[in-house]
Specification:
alpha+beta; five-stranded mixed beta sheet; 16 helices; 16 strands; elongated
């Protein structure tokens, strides 16, 4: 119950007598007062490394201590790290997926090094991991890696969280991204939801990001002196180390990932009875030649859909083309490039009739006319370059319709005799025969007796 003024009087007395020096605040370090800590904070949050800022201050002779001392003072005055939160996932709730640059493989034929991609999927509750190397991040490899991952886990989690690559997301959006149609088809088959991570937000899939770092520091270093000549060889080596990785005790949970996976496995959805056939999606416009472009080849579709956008679903063996959800064409997938895969029934009637003409059909039509016509046509089409004479053969056979089959047969007999296969020559022969016929028909067969004429017709 002493008044504060009385207390202040005794405090001042003790200060003057230096008996209260232990209660005084230590004087600030001199160099700290000369630094604009707010500017340091803004530069650090803008992406400048703290050691770079330290070196610049040393060059300007504003700091006379080692980096450790500078870092300690910076920790007191500015916030170098942001607050974080612990995310807890239920068993079978979520699978995080990501890619990283893979290990190069040596092509034994060309001797060149080929880059690979490193696919990783992690069950968030148990941290149980699946990984494999692929040649690309394309839709086909991306979907096939998912199928392999589900088979490795023996089930499917409720939710997939991939990155925003084109094979997963067609159009990015913070709240409503557009999922790739091929990826949507896979998700519907396995009855799993797809929720991509936000753009440039790696913390949305922090578990798989950390798992990739561990693999890069562990497995990549283990095989740094090995040379792989095939993707199969590289993945076999990875599978062996994957078992070791999942069998290691987790630093925080004090259990192995394999042990925690045994608890989570019973909460995964069962795999569908029918295995999923990986089909990539593409959209293309049908051109005026009744073909559309896909995978460096050209596939035909019905002519009445020219100029329309068609949906393409392609597996390793077949190419299906749809319009408004209805399949309009089905082709075998070409293994080569720059090839036209055509169903002639997709052409209009006139083009279809032209496309149906081939060497064997021309020969068959010539046989129906007669043996001499067939002989002439075969001599043309059995040459080293039969297609060179295809149009001429079509024109010769067409003379049977313009005139008669008997006239063409007789003309071909003359042409074979003189080895003259020109259409103009055949027509001249036919017209000469018609002229002879006409003269014979116009002859007078019954006339009166004439003593100045001889012959059987003059007998009276």
């Amino acid at each position: 119950k002493i008044h504060r003024n009385t207390i202040n009087k005794y405090v001042e007395k003790f200060k003057n007598e230096k008996l209260f020096s232990s209660l005084e605040t230590k004087p600030p370090i001199s160099w700290c007062a000369e630094i604009d800590w707010e500017k340091v904070r803004l530069e650090y949050l803008g992406g400048v490394c703290l050691n770079v800022i330290y070196e610049e201050l040393v060059e300007r002779k504003k700091v006379q201590v080692q980096y450790a001392g500078f870092w300690k003072q910076a920790q007191k005055r500015i916030s170098l790290t942001e607050a974080t939160m612990v995310r807890i996932f239920k068993p079978g709730e979520r699978t995080e997926i990501d890619y990283a640059d893979g290990i190069e493989i040596l092509d034994p034929v060309t001797g060149e090094l080929r880059k690979t991609q490193f696919f990783v999927g992690v069950l968030c509750h148990s941290r149980y991991a699946f990984a494999e190397f692929t040649m690309t991040q394309g839709s086909g490899d991306f979907l096939q890696s998912h199928v392999n991952m589900f088979e490795y886990f023996g089930g499917v989690a409720q939710l997939l969280s991939p990155d925003n690559l084109k094979s997963a997301v067609t159009k990015t959006h913070r709240y409503d991204p557009v999922i790739n149609q091929a990826y949507t088809r896979l998700a519907e088959h396995y009855e799993v939801a797809v929720v991509p991570a936000r753009v440039r937000t790696p913390k949305d899939k922090a578990i798989v990001e950390r798992t990739i770092q561990i693999f890069q520091r562990y497995f990549f270093m283990k095989v740094r002196n090995k040379t792989f000549t095939s993707l199969l060889e590289l993945n076999q080596c990875l599978r062996e180390h994957l078992v070791i990785f999942n069998g290691k005790k987790h630093r925080v949970f004090k259990r192995t990932r394999a042990e925690m996976f045994e608890d989570e496995k019973i909460h995964l959805k069962l795999l569908p009875q029918d295995p999923y056939k990986v089909a990539v999606y593409h959209r293309a416009v049908l051109s005026r030649d009744c073909h559309l472009y896909f995978d460096q080849n050209y596939y035909s579709s019905p002519h009445h859909l020219r100029g329309r956008d068609l949906d393409i679903w392609a597996t390793a063996k077949i190419v299906e083309i749809f319009y408004n959800g209805e399949r309009v064409a089905l082709h075998g997938r070409s293994k080569t490039t720059r090839k036209f895969v055509t169903d002639i029934s997709h052409y209009p009637p006139a083009q279809m009739a032209f496309a149906e003409e081939d060497v064997q059909k021309i020969i068959t039509r010539a046989v129906t006319v007669g043996p001499e016509t067939a002989r002439l046509i075969k001599s043309l089409l059995e040459s080293p370059q039969p297609l060179k004479h295809l149009r001429r053969s079509q024109g010769i056979v067409a003379l049977a319709w313009k005139y008669t089959g008997a006239d063409l047969e007789a003309a071909c007999k003359e042409a074979n005799r003189f080895s003259n296969h020109n259409i103009q020559y055949l027509e001249r022969v036919i017209k000469m025969r018609e002229g002879v016929k006409s003269n014979q028909e116009n002859e007078i067969t019954d006339r009166s007796y004439n003593p100045h004429l001889r012959g059987i017709n003059n007998i009276h």
